[in-house]
């Protein structure tokens, strides 16, 4: 019998029923055992009640997407059966709490095993409905054929602060769940995953990876305003503020968040803020000033579905236009996106470096799928991305300044980047203003100065794509049938689609774009030239990334889009279908 | 010792002859000189408007930001480097219209800095429109039949919002203003000074003579710690009173409160700390996800 490479487990019910915690316990243990994991939380923008699911994909090799076709669906309500039963693969299982007297009639003709088992009743037997998730965990472990003991130990550890009675009851609930499945499954051979061997892994949210990355980049200063799906970054920073000696301010709004962080940046720290679409809109004017005043400000925008409040808990990549064009005037800034949760950690450090190297705002834009879902990643390396502060001057190196002269903070240099000083430095006095200014920062409206300073602010960005890897290069063919380009979380679905095309003999090259602005046209063009067609994969209606290709690239007629804006992440099949259409 | 001359640059203000803001600039200069603040340790942060051009008129570190946002920016500067003397400056439009949300929150947040508002009851740089402080009946380009919205009682608002230092002055009373600015710099927390500063071009109503006639001083033996009395005096005088109106020395500054929340570790100037975290600390953070 062929061993499986992965399986997908999903549990659904009402929010507040402990569904996520069941998945979390399982995931934490499996990550330790060395499995590669990708989780997906689907939830409504409310606290209790409302349909929710937690899906976990477990594999032996590194995975980048939640995949499709569930192996095991655990339902605490009929809604889960109705909504997600269709996702169950041929030969898969649906188990529903008998309390809801589930109706499986939809799946009568499918090759799916449907079981109605007393989940609530079993939990109540141990004294509380709260233990439903532990019963479900026992069932899952039985279904997946894992060793019980590791999970028993984890349950004991999780409730270690509680009384022995509570630990015992939870262990019993776990055992009862396990037994229920074993007794009702019938005589089937469980096709479990082999044990991969322990690995040094972390299992975390993209948002947590962003926060850790900011810390690794030397940032101890954040100002932010709560917003779904970005708040976890601020919460993480605040939680660890004491150990870091950091300052985190929860401001009155996103304008204040951006300006407070910018004030810190002007003073010389690596300040940042974190938000989502509505907040990014509010920050537009501030970022325009950061461009004019050449402040190395980092803004994280965890993209969610818009416009306006849109679908706050659903993924979209529709802030690309806003990130590039939101700010008024001839705005010079950088926009980058991480291609994985691991990259949330490493690329944000580069975002801080780019901001200081180029003295301009950097918008770092993961999407909700990355921000709010957990993935297992190789343990982070603190020193892989060294801190680079660009042309920051040392106080001791500054030549003497004679009153009333100022330091030429905006000196018109050949590469467009001026030496940078910060308040407090003797001999570094300069003026900072959103007005057009001369080399010392004094307001200046002479036509020649505006032209010279504007040109400088754009000239400095000409080398960004040379100093930053503009995309993840998955192109293995010299001549390809199709070049597929995605950003942020679409990577996993694209990679899986490409792998199948490889097997089918279709030559598909894949790039996952990191640098969005300034657009790396020079670096992309050879890949476009080497492909018959180009498919740009993005989560929006208007083809915002596609449009950047059309504006910046030659041979535009090759370009088409694979768009998805229903709030759900890309799947392998969806991407495959789009690529097949252009073949 | 520094003197007023040390803060002088060669930029000529774009203010009209006779503008009250010259007096405010002179008073700030006298106060920082008296406090012996080295120019490189002084950061003057301003918003947008006639008065907010002041950020560029001192030989110091000056930042002229966006309209209404001087305060969030200035708080960021102070929290990043507590060794700096941070003074934010605005006009009444910048502070009490577009920036009012930030102003209220700065009162309650209590970051250790000084906020000086040049209050002339009118918009000057945009050439004469009503401000949140305009008197009822005041005729401007946007209130041709006279202003009819209630003028904002800013000092009462400040006290109600939790401000710990609320003062008011008139730029003509130089000695009082210089003294108040020094007290503000000494105050451990957010210090707010509303300074009447007449606009000779767009406000012929609230003129020098008008302020001279209407302003009163605080009564003999006035106790600025008495919150109820402060509000009563402001009510009785319709806010046209100068001096240190209210001071609460019992509330910790944001920095002190943050340090307390941080387990007693007093945050050092963060600007000196842009480095990778210690490997052991980083490992302990990562272990949470293992």
Describe the fold and architecture.
Chain A contains 21 helices and 23 strands. Chain A is an alpha/beta fold and 583 residues long. Chain B is of the alpha/beta class. Chain B has a single domain, classed as 3-Layer(aba) Sandwich (Rossmann fold). Chain B has helices at 21-34, 70-80, 92-98, 100-109, 154-160, 174-186, 208-214, 227-236, 254-261, 279-287; strands at residues 42-46, 61-64, 85-91, 113-119, 122-123, 129-130, 165-170, 190-196, 216-217, 241-247. In chain B, a hairpin with a 5-residue loop joins β5 (122-123) and β6. The longest helix of chain B is centred in the N-terminal third of the chain and has 14 residues, at 21-34. Chain B is globular, with a radius of gyration of 20 Å. The model of chain B has no long low-confidence stretch (mean pLDDT 96). The chains are: A alpha/beta (583), B alpha/beta (290). Chains A and B meet through β7, α7, α9, α10 and α12 of A and β2, α2, α4 and α10 of B.
């Amino acid at each position: 019998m062929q061993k499986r490479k992965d399986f997908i487990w999903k549990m659904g019910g009402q929010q507040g029923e402990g569904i996520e915690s069941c998945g979390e316990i399982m995931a934490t243990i499996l990550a330790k055992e060395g499995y590669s994991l990708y989780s997906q939380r689907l939830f409504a923008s409310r606290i209790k009640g409302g349909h929710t699911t937690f899906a976990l994909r477990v594999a032996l090799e590194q995975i980048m997407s939640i995949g499709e076709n569930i192996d095991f669906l655990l339902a605490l309500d009929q809604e889960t059966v109705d909504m997600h039963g269709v996702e169950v693969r041929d030969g898969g299982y649906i188990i529903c709490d008998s309390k809801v007297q589930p109706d499986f009639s939809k799946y009568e003709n499918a090759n799916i095993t449907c079981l109605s088992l007393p989940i609530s009743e079993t939990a109540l037997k141990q004294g509380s409905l709260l233990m439903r998730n532990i019963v479900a965990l026992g069932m899952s472990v039985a279904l997946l054929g894992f060793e019980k003991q590791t999970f028993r130990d984890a349950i004991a550890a999780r409730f270690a602060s509680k009384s022995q009675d509570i630990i015992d009851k939870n262990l019993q609930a776990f055992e009862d769940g396990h037994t229920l499945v074993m007794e009702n499954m019938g005589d089937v051979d469980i096709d479990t995953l082999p044990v991969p061997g322990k690995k040094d892994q972390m299992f975390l949210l993209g948002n947590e990876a962003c926060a850790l990355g900011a810390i690794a980049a030397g940032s101890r200063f954040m100002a932010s305003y709560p917003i779904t799906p970005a708040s976890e970054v601020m919460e993480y920073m605040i939680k660890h503020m004491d150990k870091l000696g950091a300052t985190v301010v929860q401001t009155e709004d996103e304008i204040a968040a951006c300006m407070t962080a910018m004030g810190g940046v002007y003073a010389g720290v690596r300040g940042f803020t974190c938000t989502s679409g509505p907040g990014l809109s509010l920050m537009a004017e501030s970022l325009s000033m950061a461009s004019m005043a050449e402040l190395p400000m980092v803004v994280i925008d965890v993209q969610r579905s818009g416009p306006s409040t849109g679908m706050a808990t659903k993924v979209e990549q529709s802030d690309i236009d806003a990130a590039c064009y939101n700010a008024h005037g001839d705005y010079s800034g950088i926009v980058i996106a991480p291609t994985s949760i691991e990259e949330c950690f490493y690329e944000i450090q580069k975002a801080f470096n780019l901001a200081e190297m180029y003295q301009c705002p950097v918008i770092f834009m993961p999407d909700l799928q990355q921000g709010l879902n957990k993935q297992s990643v190789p343990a982070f390396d603190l020193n892989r991305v060294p801190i680079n502060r660009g042309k920051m001057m040392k106080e001791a190196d500054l030549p003497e300044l004679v009153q009333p002269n100022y330091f030429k903070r905006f000196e018109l240099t050949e590469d467009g980047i001026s030496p940078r000083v910060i308040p407090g430095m003797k001999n570094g006095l300069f003026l900072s203003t959103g007005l057009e200014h001369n080399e010392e920062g004094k307001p200046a409206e002479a036509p020649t100065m505006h032209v010279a300073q504007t040109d400088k602010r754009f000239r400095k960005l000409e080398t960004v794509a040379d100093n930053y890897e503009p995309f993840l290069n998955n192109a293995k063919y010299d001549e390809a049938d199709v070049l597929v380009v995605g950003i942020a979380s679409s990577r996993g679905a694209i990679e899986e689609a490409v792998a199948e095309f490889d097997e089918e003999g279709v030559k598909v090259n894949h790039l996952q774009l990191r640098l969005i602005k300034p657009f790396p046209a020079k670096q992309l063009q050879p890949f476009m030239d080497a492909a018959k067609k180009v498919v740009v994969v993005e989560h929006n209606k208007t083809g915002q990334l596609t449009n950047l290709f059309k504006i910046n690239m030659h041979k535009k007629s090759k370009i088409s889009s694979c768009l998805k804006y229903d709030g759900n992440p890309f799947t392998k099949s969806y991407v495959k279908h789009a690529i097949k259409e252009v073949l | 010792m520094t003197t007023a001359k040390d803060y002088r640059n060669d930029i000529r203000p774009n203010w009209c002859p006779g503008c009250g803001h010259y007096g405010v600039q002179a008073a700030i200069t006298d106060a920082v000189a008296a406090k012996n603040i080295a120019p490189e340790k002084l950061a003057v942060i301003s918003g947008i408007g006639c008065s907010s051009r002041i950020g560029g008129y001192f030989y110091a570190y000056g930042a002229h930001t966006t309209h209404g946002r001087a305060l969030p920016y200035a708080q960021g500067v102070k929290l990043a480097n507590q060794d700096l003397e941070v003074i934010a400056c605005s006009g009444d439009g910048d502070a009490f219209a577009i920036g009012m949300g930030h102003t209220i929150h700065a009162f309650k947040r209590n970051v250790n800095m000084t906020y000086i508002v040049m209050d002339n009851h009118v918009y000057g740089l945009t050439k004469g429109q009503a401000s949140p402080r305009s008197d009822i009946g005041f005729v401007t380009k946007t209130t041709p039949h006279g202003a009819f919205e209630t003028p904002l009682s800013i000092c009462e608002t400040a006290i109600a919002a939790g401000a710990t230092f609320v003062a008011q002055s008139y730029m003509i009373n130089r000695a009082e203003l210089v003294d108040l600015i020094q007290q503000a710099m000494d105050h451990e927390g957010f210090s707010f000074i509303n300074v009447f500063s007449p606009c000779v071009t767009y406000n012929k109503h609230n003129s020098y003579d008008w302020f001279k006639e209407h302003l009163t001083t605080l009564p003999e033996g006035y106790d600025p710690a008495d919150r109820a009395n402060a509000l009563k005096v402001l009510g009785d005088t319709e806010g046209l009173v100068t001096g240190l109106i209210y001071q609460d020395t019992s509330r910790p500054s944001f920095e002190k409160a943050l340090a307390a929340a941080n387990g007693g570790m007093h945050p050092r100037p963060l600007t000196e700390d842009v480095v990778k975290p210690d490997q052991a600390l980083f490992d302990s953070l990562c272990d949470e996800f293992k």
